[in-house]
């Protein structure tokens, strides 16, 4: 998709004289390349918006963790292309006018139509990109990162007048104008429809409220919710919503929590680990507190499972969607294995429910306890003498013929996914959900 749109944009640039300008050399060549990098940056920036517009068909096809990776890639790529556009256009214009580059940049910002807005949009995007670097994200609370990330929409919106008023490649031909207006309309329409309209409609229809809150273990709290027409809510076990609880200041910041029990028409359950300000407040919620949702999201579902051997690999809070899947998947007694990784006994949650699944539905439950291995691994240190794949084969004989579901922290889930592939699990039988942002 990205490659095709980039080819279209390049073709439009050639049609509007870009290649001819490039052959002129010197300042003209710099301006021509600057035009092209600006077009590529705009194209990828709009695709980035579409990727995270929460379009249900796209979410079901690819899953949000894969879309988030593509969103991240297109985001950083469009940013560096945008920087190249600014530098090359400035140098090209300065060369043509025989002016100082800094003076030319100042003149462009203050005198060209729409450039002040474009500058503000660029600064907003710089802030978003800087706070998206992994080192910066580790120092930010999720709530702060999420709030800052919303400025990307301001960056995209503020750049539009600049392209309309001064962008030759935007208005240079009817084809170019139709293409860019269509892409902008699709992006804006998708955000309005699926980030705003659909959540508003679902909340008005289902009117979720907290029924009760239950302690599940150290730092773990379950929230039971009721509402109207929940049998009409299109959600499956393994999926998650973005939640807002109307319990006071800070309610506007959404947090992603998976369902921890199979959804049914009478209610929903989520389980939250105390990892920050927003999650710690969950334990203090009172009965009757209203909840707002966005979703459901995620592809860690039993959509393609019709029976046979199934293995679920969970680490920490990653147990929650897999517990919901245990309730929904149509496996026979003895066909399901759950491997649950935790540092110690105290961190294991839902012991009674897991014992029920073992006794009533024949689930084989394996607890992997202990400190992490010294090497990157999904195993505890006591398995250090074995490879990740060999240990998985030993724990689950016949793993290669199993449907495998993996959920946990990013590094652990990647190690578990690699082990499953090395153990012979086919890619179409490997389903994952990463807990990362």
From TrEMBL:
Annotated membrane topology: Multi-pass membrane protein
Cofactor: FAD
The protein's name in its UniProt record: Ferric reductase-like transmembrane domain-containing protein
Residues annotated as transmembrane: 73-94, 114-136, 148-166, 178-198
A Pfam family annotated for this UniProt entry: NAD_binding_1
Organism (species): Paractinoplanes globisporus
Compartments, as annotated in UniProt: Membrane
Keyword terms: 2Fe-2S, FAD, Flavoprotein, Iron, Iron-sulfur, Membrane, Metal-binding, Oxidoreductase, Transmembrane, Transmembrane helix
Domain FAD-binding FR-type: 203-303
Coarse class of the protein's main subcellular location: membrane
Superkingdom classification of source: Bacteria
């Amino acid at each position: 998709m990205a490659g095709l749109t980039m080819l279209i944009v390049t073709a439009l640039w050639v049609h509007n004289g870009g290649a001819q300008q490039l052959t002129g050399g010197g300042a003209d060549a710099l301006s021509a390349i600057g035009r092209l990098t600006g077009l590529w940056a705009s194209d990828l920036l709009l695709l980035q918006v579409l990727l995270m517009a929460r379009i249900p068909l796209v979410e079901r096809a690819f899953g949000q963790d894969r879309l988030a990776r593509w969103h991240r890639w297109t985001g950083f790529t469009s940013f560096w292309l945008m920087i190249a556009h600014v530098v090359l256009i400035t140098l090209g214009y300065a060369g043509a006018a025989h002016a100082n580059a800094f003076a030319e940049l100042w003149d462009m910002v203050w005198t060209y139509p729409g450039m002040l807005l474009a500058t503000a949009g660029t600064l907003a995007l710089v802030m978003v990109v800087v706070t998206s670097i992994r080192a910066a994200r580790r120092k930010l609370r999720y709530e702060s990162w999420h709030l800052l990330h919303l400025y990307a929409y301001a960056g995209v919106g503020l750049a539009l007048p600049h392209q309309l008023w001064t962008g030759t490649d935007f208005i240079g031909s009817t084809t170019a104008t139709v293409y860019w207006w269509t892409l902008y309309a699709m992006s804006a329409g998708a955000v309005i429809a699926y980030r705003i309209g659909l959540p508003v409609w679902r909340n008005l229809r289902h009117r979720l409220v907290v029924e009760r809150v239950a302690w599940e273990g150290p730092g773990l709290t379950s929230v039971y919710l009721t509402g109207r027409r929940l049998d009409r809510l299109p959600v499956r076990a393994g999926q998650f919503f973005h939640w807002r609880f109307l319990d006071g200041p800070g309610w506007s910041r959404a947090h992603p929590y998976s369902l921890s029990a199979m959804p049914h028409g009478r209610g929903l359950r989520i389980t939250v680990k105390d990892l920050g300000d927003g999650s710690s407040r969950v334990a203090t919620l009172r009965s009757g507190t209203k909840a707002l949702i966005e979703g459901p999201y995620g592809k860690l579902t039993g959509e393609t499972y019709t029976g046979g051997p199934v293995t679920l690999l969970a680490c920490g809070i990653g147990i929650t969607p897999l517990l919901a899947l245990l309730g929904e998947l149509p496996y026979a007694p003895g066909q399901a294995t759950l491997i649950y990784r935790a540092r110690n006994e105290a961190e294991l949650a839902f012991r009674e429910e897991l014992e029920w699944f073992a006794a009533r539905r024949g689930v084989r439950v394996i607890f992997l306890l202990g400190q992490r291995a010294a090497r990157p691994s999904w195993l505890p240190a006591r398995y250090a003498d074995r490879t990740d794949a060999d240990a998985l084969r030993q724990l689950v004989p016949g793993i290669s013929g199993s449907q495998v579901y993996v959920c946990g922290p990013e590094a652990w889930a990647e190690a578990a996914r690699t082990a499953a592939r090395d153990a012979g699990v086919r890619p179409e039988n490997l389903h994952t959900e990463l807990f990362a942002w």
